[in-house]
Design a protein that fits this description.
heterodimer; A: 290 residues; alpha+beta; SH3 type barrels; 11 helices; 14 strands; 27% strand; B: 411 residues; mainly alpha; Amino acid/polyamine transporter I; 18 helices; globular
Chain lengths: 290, 411
């Protein structure tokens, strides 16, 4: 059991009360802005679900008391009309993601452990001024058993937490927001770690990741990855982008890659489908949710 | 289209083929062959139209499973967990694992029955089959496993040959296929609902989606994948057609009744020639073998998706222990149950059929819900027309499953 921390699946569902003690709704989700400049990653807003009324998207400032089984707001429900929203997705900022929707139970790439895992829970710590600080995500079967209420019956599964700074989200919004966030792990990986990451996401996501890095780093990552993965990514890119990455390679490698890309792909490119890559849902939010 | 372009298109199709063919053909497992055999032996050509309906249902839902796999990059159980949470996902997974173990028992029982026709003891045939299917996945790369399974699928040609050798009345067969008539007896209703209700199997749907993911199919492959799904479903229907035809032309003509597919193989020998019966038995063994390979695979994919660990046939054991251990455990338990001297095999098989039928209902509803979810499916989310088609098919299957359940309970 993780001690001294809060877990997303335990804090959501709590009653949200007005200052008069009347129940306004239930805590449905949290948002975080990935582009926060300050070091700790703090929860930005709360989503409060209400019966027969639009959801509320409240800034953390609206919370006057964050208790163990309830959240008390500073203003009564009637004063919160400005925070009502019919579509939480549309109301999010460009660098903002929802933790339940975009993180919990989705797949992530642990860029340090170099593995693909599914998020079992999201881990917070209480920060000064009763803010919630995002620590990381719990992966592995232990979290699943705990959520099923079987944690004590089936012991032996330890806690496996991936630090928030060491993961890349594969959900559509998470991936795109992280690409646009200089602080995200994807922007500080060396060539080897970048190669491991692009080998675990789909072709579109991989090309976007390479495009977000300098050509020299991208070129090193292509060389460090399995040749099939490198070829798949370079072929999927616009020719000019691929040419720029190849040009950034040492001469001998550049010649070899140019030759490889100039020849017809084996099995019309299909052979590269079998490299260890998980497809990604890139097409989802082009122009709608990004 | 130029010759080169046609060649390129054909090569691309060959590369994509696999998920639909394997998921479809493995539906023609011993339980399926038994259903078709009873359908033909008891009702002749009259109920062949049911196969058309089941083929349509297969195309619709296997197509949806493939699309969801390609679009989301996740298997069905992984998506159920992501969309509906760990409790619903865990309940579905638990039921699926139990049902899959029971169904794998049925496949090994099919292997045993098929080889016993040739005088080979089940202790030898089932043990060998368990070892072979385990080695196939443990030692093989994705390419090799897929090729071997597709090669194994060609054994279904035996049913087509067997059908021709029975010298059926093709006119009556065509009439029975295209003109639906229905004798309103309890037996007929039971066999029609069994054929329709068991065409879509929970393990087949989860396998279809997971395998499309493991094959790393992409959005660009979807149109070719549709060809794969339709080919697989049509071949499944065609094989069912020939099984029905073979039994209708011989067993039904002579008023013989059978209890299972092995009975049909034995009964066919004096009526349609020894080779027809032998081919039927060979088909039964091949079908059982194919399904016995795919069921543990489907289970292993589902467990890994739920637990959240990487799982692919290409992964070595040290990187995908959960995957390979699940595969091995399902195979071992199933083979052991079939070989256990006093195991209540009939109870297990009937219970499995019921569990599969019960599980199918929430799974189909979950699939329709997932297909409509724009957060998951984006531009590929199902609209109103698609929802109507999927909903209608679900209703038909659910009615069949409930009718079948009532029939089983009453009998």
């Amino acid at each position: 059991m993780l001690r001294g921390v809060l877990l997303l699946t335990r804090v959501t569902g709590r009653d949200v009360l007005g200052p008069d003690g009347r129940v306004i709704g239930r805590l449905g989700d949290f948002t975080v802005c990935l582009d926060q400049q300050s070091e700790p990653q703090l929860v930005e807003r709360l989503v409060v679900g209400r019966r027969r009324a639009p959801a509320l998207l409240l800034p953390w400032d609206a919370v006057s008391n964050y208790g163990s089984d309830q959240v008390v707001l500073a203003a009564p429900g009637a004063d919160l009309a400005d925070f009502e929203t019919d579509s939480v997705t549309d109301a999010l900022g460009p660098d903002e993601i929802l933790l339940c929707r975009d993180v919990l139970d989705t797949q992530i790439v642990d860029v340090v452990g170099q593995r693909l895992a599914r998020v079992g829970d999201v881990v917070f710590a209480l920060a000064p001024q009763a803010r919630l600080e995002l620590i990381g995500v719990e992966v592995g079967f232990g979290a699943v058993l705990r959520r099923l209420g079987l944690g004590r019956i089936v012991p032996g599964f330890g806690n496996d937490v991936v630090a928030w700074s060491d993961l890349h989200l594969t959900s559509d919004r998470g991936h795109l927001v992280q690409l646009g966030t200089p602080r995200a792990a994807v922007h500080r990986l060396d060539a080897a770690a970048l190669a491991a990451l692009v080998s675990r996401v789909d072709t579109d996501a991989a090309t976007e990741i390479l495009a977000a890095r300098e050509p020299g780093v991208a070129a090193d990552a292509v060389r460090a990855a399995h040749a099939d993965v490198g070829e798949r990514m370079l072929r999927a890119m616009p020719e000019t982008d691929a040419a720029r990455i190849v040009a950034a390679m040492p001469d001998e490698h550049a010649r070899r890659w140019s030759h490889r890309l100039a020849s017809a792909p084996a099995l019309f490119g299909r052979r590269t489908l079998r490299s260890r890559v998980w497809p990604h849902r890139r097409h989802l939010i082009r122009g709608t949710r990004a | 289209m130029s010759r080169t372009a046609r060649r390129a298109r054909f090569a691309a199709l060959l590369a994509v083929l696999g998920p639909g063919l394997l998921a479809g053909l493995s539906d023609d497992d011993p339980a399926g062959i038994t259903t078709y055999s009873v359908l033909g032996a008891d009702h002749g050509y009259q109920l062949l139209w049911v196969l058309l309906l089941s083929t349509v249902a297969l195309v619709i839902f296997h197509g949806l499973a493939a699309r969801m796999g390609v679009v989301t990059g996740q298997g069905l159980i992984g998506l159920v967990r992501q969309r509906y949470g760990v409790i619903v996902g865990g309940a579905v997974l638990s039921a699926l694992v139990i049902a899959n173990i029971g169904t794998t028992c049925a496949e090994f029982a099919g292997v045993a029955a098929g080889f016993e026709i040739f005088g080979i003891s089940r202790y030898i045939s089932v043990s060998a089959a368990a070892v072979i299917v385990s080695l196939l996945v443990l030692r093989g790369s994705f390419h090799r496993v897929e090729r071997l399974l597709l090669l194994l699928s060609t054994v279904f040609l035996a049913y087509i040959a067997s059908g021709f050798m029975a010298h059926p009345d093709w006119g009556a067969a065509l009439h029975g296929t295209l003109v639906p008539t229905m004798p309103m007896t309890g037996e007929a209703i039971a066999i029609v609902t069994a054929t329709l209700g068991t065409t879509l199997a929970p393990w087949g749907l989860s396998f279809m989606q997971s395998y499309a993911v493991d094959k790393k199919l992409r959005i660009e492959d979807l149109s070719l994948e549709r060809v794969d799904v339709i080919t697989g479903a049509v071949l499944t229907g065609v094989i069912g057609f020939f099984v029905v035809v073979a039994c209708a032309a011989t067993l039904h003509r002579d008023g013989l009744h059978i209890a299972d597919a092995a009975d049909a193989a034995v009964a066919l020998q004096p009526l349609a020639g020894k080779s027809a019966g032998t081919l039927f038995a060979v088909g039964l063994i091949g079908a059982a073998f194919l399904a016995a390979s795919i069921l543990p695979l489907s289970t292993a994919y589902s467990v890994c998706e739920y637990v959240g660990v990487e799982a692919a046939i290409d992964d070595p054991y040290r990187e995908a222990r959960t995957f390979y251990l699940t595969y091995g455990i399902v195979t071992l338990i199933s083979a052991t149950i079939v070989l256990a001297p006093n195991a209540p095999l009939v109870t297990i098989l009937v219970g499995t059929q019921v569990l599969n039928a019960v599980l199918l209902i929430p799974l189909l509803l979950a699939m329709v819900g997932l297909a409509r979810d724009r957060d998951l499916m984006g531009h590929f989310a199902t609209g109103r027309a698609g929802t109507f088609v999927y909903g209608l098919t679900t209703v038909v299957v659910v009615v069949c499953v409930i009718t079948l359940g009532i029939t089983i309970l009453l009998s």
